[in-house]
Amino acid sequence: MKLNTTIFGISLFLLLVSGLSAQPAAVSTSSLEPFSGEKGTVRISGGTAHIPVMREAASRIMKFNRDIRITIAGGGSGAGIRQVGEGLVDIGNSGRMATEAEISKYDLRIFELAVDGVAVVVNPRNPVKALSSPELRGIYSGKISNWKELGGNDKQITVYTRDNSSGTRAVFWDKALNRSMITDRAHFAVSNGAMKAAVSQDPNGIGYISAGHIDRSVSPVALDGILPGLENIKSGTYPVSRILYANTRSNSRALALKFVDYLLTGEGQDLFAEKGFIPVR
Amino acid sequence: MKIPAERIVIVFSWACALLLLGCVAVIVGYLFIKGGRVLDLELVFGDSSPIDAFMLKNQVYSGLWPAIVGTLSLVAAAIFFAVPVGVASGIYLAEYSRGRVKGVFSLFFDILASIPSIIVGLFGFSIAVFLHQHFSERIYPCLLISALSLAFLVLPYIIRTTQVALESVPLSVRQTAPALGASRLQNIRHVLLPGSFSSLAGGIVLAMGRCAEDTAVIMLTGVVASAGIPRSVLDNYEALPFYIYYISAQYSDAEELAGGFGAALILIIICLMLFSIAFLVKNRFMHQMTRI
Amino acid sequence: MRKEILVEKILFVTAAGSVFATAGVFLFMFYLGLPVITGGHLGDLFTSPWAPEQGLYGIRSMVAGSLLISILSLVFAFPLSLGCSIFIAVLNPGKMGWILKRTVQFMTGIPTVVYGFVGIFLLVPLIRNLFEYGSGMSILTAAFLLAILITPTMVLIFSESFRRVPVSYLDAVKALGGNPVQAFIHVILPYSWQGIIAGLVLAVGRAMGDTMISLMVAGNSVGLPRSILDSGRTLTGHIGLIIAADFDSLEFKSLFACGMILYVFTALIVTTARGLHYRKGAGSFK
Question: Which of B57, B76, B259, C86 is deepest in the core (most CB within 10 A)?
Answer without folding.
Answer: C86
